[in-house]
Amino acid sequence: MFATVNSDCIGCGACEAICPQVFRMNSYEIAEAYLNPIPQDVEEATKLAAKSCPVAAIILEG
Ligand code: SF4
Predict the structure, then answer these.
(1) From which residue to which does the signal peptide run (predicted)?
(2) Can you give the pLDDT at residue 37?
């Protein structure tokens, strides 16, 4: 599975709080997925982060 954050991100920080192994805020206060492909042991947390994004900016593929 691969995760990307699209330009709808409003920088709320929820994804980083839920799954810091994958998502981190960059210097523009926008989230980025730093760990691709997503390791199996954090897949569930990644999915939860995507579901919790208030603007559905996290795209999961694969
Ligand atoms: S939860 Fe969504 S809006 Fe919030 S920082 Fe992450 S990608 Fe951006």
Answers:
(1) none
(2) 97
